[in-house]
Amino acid sequence: EEAPSPFMDEELREKMGSVAVKSAQAVDYVNAGTIEFFLFENNEFYFIEMNTRLQVEHPITEMITGVDIVAEQIRIARGRQLSYTQDQIKFNGHAIECRVNAEDPFNNFIPSTGRIAHSLLPTGPGVRVDTGVYPGFEITPYYDPMIAKLIVWGETRAQAILRMRRALEEYRIVGVRTNIPFHQTLMDSHRFMGGQFDTRFVEERFSMDTENASDPNVEIAAILATLVAHQQTERSARIFRPNERDTSNWKWVGRWERMHR
């Protein structure tokens, strides 16, 4: 998930937000909630459903608005007013969230069960990890396989993608298979980077096999880079011993003359 949507403009956001507010008012709903729409290429949108709760992807909204939605939900439940008015809500930057699940992306996302032996969370500027698992935690087939939510923020969408790539590379989970390789491949997809995707993107236009198909030129470049790095390492480790007579004949003559004055 990402926010703001690369397909949204201010006019569309205003229309969609107005419909969402009217939908909640129609049923006298008071609390945090999420209303979902289908958006088509001609900017027409259609109501799908309303979830009377926070969504899993609520952190991306928090990251670009600075609003703690969970805290505001508790305030509403206590009968208090919201801490903000709508006019005070401003977007800042771009956020992306990847759901890290115990699934095998190379085997039709079949669930992976087992005990987590090691977990190393990514860190750094704009990186947030919401998780409740730890080394020794057991992933069973009886509950949701989600291990964590990895969220990044950047000043721009491009920066957010770069930070997500780095965070996914740093994330280490040992004991079960995860869908981290899927997210890594997705972040490298030209269609995703260009914002050219829809609800059928993964099943129709995205494949772990095709996206990871090796390019011969890339392999050659990797081999050459390895050889160059090895050569530089050998040079830095090599010890050069000067020759027995590591000086010119002119210096030898000058020394001989000074010694015999």
Write structural notes for this entry.
The chain is of the alpha+beta class and 261 residues long. It folds into two domains: 1-91, D-amino Acid Aminotransferase, Chain A, domain 1 (2-Layer Sandwich), CATH 3.30.470.20; 93-236, ATP-grasp fold, B domain (D-amino Acid Aminotransferase, Chain A, domain 1, 2-Layer Sandwich), CATH 3.30.470. It has helices spanning 10-26, 58-65, 69-77, 157-170, 180-187, 190-193, 201-205, 208-211, 216-237, 249-259, and strands spanning 2-3, 34-39, 45-51, 94-101, 103-104, 110-111, 114-115, 118-120, 127-131, 138-139, 146-154, 172-174. The chain has a four-stranded antiparallel beta sheet. A two-stranded antiparallel sheet has the order 2-3. Strands 5-6 form a two-stranded antiparallel ribbon. The longest helix is centred in the C-terminal third of the chain and has 22 residues, at 216-237. The protein is elongated and about 110 Å long.
Structure, briefly:
With 261 residues, the chain is of the alpha+beta class.
Most strands sheet: 4 strands, antiparallel
Q: What is the CATH architecture descriptor of the largest domain?
A: 2-Layer Sandwich
Order of helices and strands: EHEEHHEEEEEEEEHEHHHHHH
Which structural class best describes the helix and strand composition?
alpha+beta
**CATH topology term of the largest domain:** D-amino Acid Aminotransferase, Chain A, domain 1
Query: How much helix, percentage-wise, in residues?
Result: 25-40%
Strand content: 15-25%
Q: Count the DSSP helices.
A: 10
Structurally, how many domains make up the residues?
Answer: 2
